[in-house]
Design goal:
single chain, 250 residues, alpha/beta, 10 helices, 7 strands
């Protein structure tokens, strides 16, 4: 199936590894060009080397809203267009909330909500001014749909991402800008190292998932590609859960 994104310019944050790297590779496989954004320059360089003509690596801290807003200009300068933004970057500080400095929660909100909002707004300004269609895909989490103990800041921020998605989808629909979110469950990424490296912990985790396995990072790519594609032109304001049935079991 041709997803019709072969000349798209796409910005993907948190692109250096895990889900972000998988999403970037999926975009490139469909013919799009990507501004791949992350703080880790070494990992970005490795990713960009896999398709140097189609991947522009950019080091950026999502807490720096000015730098985040400038990513739209970078994509326009490098590829001549910007068709979609994929807000994937995020942090998940863990700990007992009563023992956690409130600054930790503020940082989670800055990286997981304010940074993505700033990037989405910057892209929307461009699309509205140029009267072009655009797409925003926000990566939330199952933790944003059901709060998790010891992840209060992360759960709160990802819940905010889901609500932000709905608000922007309604507000920007008249401009032909679509905004959707994906709530991943357990994926085999570095963020799950503590689970993957302990057989007992892994077994307990898998018991919560009806499909009895964790997802591979590449499994999120086709869903993102579909949401970016014109083939999903009537899809906006929606949250897509990809979790092996875990939410349905709760």
């Amino acid at each position: 199936m041709d997803l019709e994104i072969d000349r798209f310019g796409v910005i993907v944050t948190g692109a250096s590894r895990g889900l972000g790297a998988a999403i970037t590779k999926a975009m490139v496989a469909e013919g799009a060009s990507v501004v791949a954004v992350a703080r880790s320059t070494d990992d970005l360089a490795v990713l960009a080397a896999s398709a140097p003509e189609r991947i522009e690596p950019v080091s950026c801290d999502m807490r720096d809203t000015e730098a985040v807003e400038n990513l739209v200009g970078t994509c326009l300068d490098r590829f001549g267009r910007v068709d979609a933004v994929v807000n994937n970057a995020g942090i998940a500080p863990a700990g007992k909330f009563v023992e956690t400095d409130i600054a930790i929660m503020e940082e989670a909100l800055a990286v997981n909500v304010i940074g993505p909002a700033a990037l989405a707004r910057s892209a929307a300004k461009h699309w509205i001014a140029s009267e072009e269609a655009g797409v925003v895909v926000n990566i939330a989490s199952l933790s944003g749909l059901r709060g998790k103990a010891l992840l209060s800041g992360y759960s709160a921020s990802k819940g905010a991402v889901v609500r932000l998605t709905e608000s922007l989808a309604v507000e920007w629909a008249r401009h032909n800008i679509r905004v959707n979110t994906i709530a991943p469950g357990a994926f085999q990424t570095d963020a799950q190292a503590a689970v993957l490296d302990d057989p007992a912990t892994l077994e307990a985790r898998l018991r919560k998932i009806p499909l009895r396995r964790m997802a591979k990072p590449y499994e999120i790519g086709p869903l993102v590609a579909y949401l970016v594609s014109p083939l999903s032109s009537f899809v906006t304001g929606s949250c897509f859960v990809i979790d092996g049935g875990e939410l349905a079991r709760l």
